[in-house]
Write a structure and sequence with these properties.
With about 290 residues, the protein is α+β, with helices and mostly antiparallel strands. It has two domains: about 60 residues; about 200 residues, Beta-Lactamase. The chain is about 50% helix and about 15% strand. A six-stranded antiparallel beta sheet has the order 3-2-1-6-5-4, sandwiched between helices. A two-stranded antiparallel sheet has the order 7-8. Helix 1 packs antiparallel against helix 3 and helix 3 runs antiparallel to helix 10. It starts with a helix and ends with a helix. The model has no long low-confidence stretch (mean pLDDT about 85).
Length: about 290
């Protein structure tokens, strides 16, 4: 509301300045009243400059407002969709079955969000942010359902045209340009991973090494991105209407029993519903 009033005030000022400039252009010496004519002629250039500046400000602010209003509306709709997907797949609550919508973005954007979101006490998160390359491409957390852990997560996984440079499960899905699932991973605790300070220590720990290899964690640095380590993952690529890749929709489950495996085989109803929602999201982000 305040922003709208401010723009309205600037628009009124631009109208007044426009009238003043029009008057200044048309008057000449000898017209009356003399005092108004003298002011208009003496300040003609300044009035025109102020009109240009205020008009530019109005246009810029109006564009910015429209842009952020559209983004807010898009996020609102996506939040509702993710919430519905979570409730549909997990009626008992999605606390242990987290759905994340990742968006491919630049390293500097991830870093900017991280500077705002990361608490000072999370040293491993600051280490992860410090390794980002500004010009690199990353899958960053765009949105998670309301009842999910880490809604303001700064987790970001690098993606590239080179398969060897794509990180994590999300990065693997991006590289495959399709779907991927892994399940029944070893159960590991984050406190155990925080003790690993080198690639040699990771290789020396068979449990962590197995988990890192199966989840496409390229090296021990990648582990700093995560706070929680799921047992099951299923995800699919999000494509826009024009077919270009936009991001990844990923489920990471902390349940002992895998929610998308039925009698040892992928549940077709689960996969179909998950992928249907991914298609809907792709239409919205286009």
């Amino acid at each position: 509301m305040r922003r709208s009033r401010f723009i309205a005030g600037l628009s009124f000022l631009a109208t007044v300045l426009g009238a003043a400039v029009a008057y200044a252009v048309r008057v000449k010496q000898g017209d009356s009243p003399a005092w108004a004519v003298n002011i208009a002629i003496d300040h003609r250039a300044a009035l025109a400059l102020w009109l240009l500046a205020v008009t530019f400000m109005v246009a810029a602010l109006d564009f910015t407002r429209a842009y952020f209003d559209a983004r807010h509306q898009t996020r609102f709709v996506l939040d509702r969709i993710l919430g519905e997907l979570s409730k549909t797949l997990f009626p008992q609550g999605g606390r242990h079955n987290r759905i994340t919508l990742f968006n491919c973005t630049s390293g500097w954007r991830v870093l900017a969000w991280g500077l705002v979101r990361v608490p000072f006490g999370k040293r491993h998160k600051w280490r992860a942010l410090s390794r980002l390359t500004w010009s690199g491409r990353y899958l960053g957390v765009y949105l998670r359902p309301t009842d999910s852990r880490g809604r303001k997560s700064t987790a970001a996984f690098r993606v590239s045209d080179e398969s060897s440079e794509c990180e994590g499960v999300a990065g693997r899905i991006w590289d495959l340009a399709g779907q991927w699932m892994i399940y029944d991973l070893p159960k590991i605790e984050s406190r155990d991973l925080r003790k690993i300070a080198s690639q040699q220590e990771l290789e020396a720990n068979p449990l962590v090494r197995d988990y890192a290899a199966k989840t496409n964690m390229l090296n021990f640095h990648t582990l700093d991105v995560c706070d929680h380590f799921a047992k099951h993952f299923y995800g699919t690529l999000i494509r826009k209407s024009d077919g270009s890749a936009w991001g990844v929709l990923l489920l990471d489950s902390f349940e002992d029993l895998c929610p998308f495996i039925d009698n040892g085989r992928p549940s077709l109803s689960f996969v179909q519903r998950f992928n249907d929602y991914a298609l809907i999201i792709g239409k919205i982000v286009s």
